[in-house]
Amino acid sequence: MRRNIYQPSITINSPTQNQVIGSTAPSFNVNIQNADDTYWYTIDGGISNFTFAVNTTINQAAWNALLNGTITIRFYANDTSGNLNFQDVIVQKDILAPVITINAPTSNQLFVHDLPQFNLTIIEGNLNVSWYTIDSGLTNYTFIGLTGILDQGVLPNGTITIRFYANDTFGNLGYSEVAIQFDKLSPKSFNLSTDADSPDTDGNFNLNWTISIGADNYSIYIYSEINMSITLVEGEITDLGYLIAQLDSGTYYFFVRSYNATDFAQSNQVNVTVEVSTEEPADLITILTNPVTIFLFGIAIVSLAVIIKKFRKKYYKSGDKEIKRIEDIRRKETE
Predict the structure, then answer these.
(1) Distance, CA of 139 to CA of 154 (rounded, Å)
(2) End-to-end alpha carbon distance in the chain
(3) How many whole angstroms separate alpha carbon 235 and alpha carbon 242?
(4) Per-domain boundaries in the chain
(5) CA-to-CA distance for 246 and 160, rounded, in angstroms?
C-alpha cells in the first residue's frame, strides 16, 4: 500500500487577519483539503483544544477567559497517515468600554445666561455613537464630535447632572457625568438712569440701563401717581437705551423690566419733570420814527427804525399724537 505523504491544506476564510472582535466569540470558516481524520483549533496556545467537523463558532467560554488584546487562533488538521498541518490567524479582542473625560463644563459650574458648552476627550479606536442625557436616560441627545452646546429646550433650573455616553462598534459602553448649576429663574438686578435735565425743557431725553444678566429683552413703563396705573411705553427691547421724545409738561415716573422665558426683574424708578413753555410770544408794535436829533444831558440820540419779529404757531397732526411746530414768519413793516 502506498503511503500518503501530502500534508492537509488549510485555508482560513474568516475571521480575517487583524479583525477586531468584541466580547462575542467569532464564527469561523475554514477550507481543509487532503485531511480525512481530525480538525481542531486552539486560542490559548494549545492549553485547550476544540475539535470540529464543520465550520462553527469559537467556544464562548474559552473566548471569555481571554483578556482584551491580540489573540492567535490556530487551526489544525491531520490525516490517517499522521500528516499534520496548521494555519494561524491573528485577531484583536476589544472588550474595553470607551473612556470619556469631561473637559468642560466643570463640576458645579454655574450657568446663568449662556448655555452650557461641552468639551470631551474619548479614548476609543472603534467609536460608534455618542450621546448625553440629563434625565437618567429618559431622553437622549446624540452628538457628533467632541464638542457641542446642550439643547436649550431641555435645561431645567437648578442642579443638572449631565451624563455622556459612548459605545464602540462591539457594544462596549462607557459613560462619564458632571453636575452643573443652571439658574435662569429670573433675570438679575440692574439700574436705570436718564440724561434729562432738571427740569427738562423740551421733553426729549434718553433712558439708559445696565445689563440684566439672564434677560432676553426689556420693556419700559410709565407709572402714574394720579390713578396708580402703569402704562407700557415700549416692549421687546434688546438694546440698553431708549429715546423718549415730545413729552408735554408734567412729572413722569419711569421704570424698566427685564424679561426671560420664566420671570422678570424690575429696575429702580427714575423721575423726570418736564417744563415746556406754552406761552405764545406777544405781538409787538413795529415802530418807525422819523430821524430827529435829541440832546439830553449832552448825549445825542438818533431815533432808530425798529423791526420786530412776530411768531405764529402752526399745528398739525401725526398719527394720534398732536405735535406743535413753530414756524418763524418774519414780517418787516415800515412806515
Answers:
(1) 9
(2) 160
(3) 11
(4) 9-93, 99-182, 192-274, 280-335
(5) 50
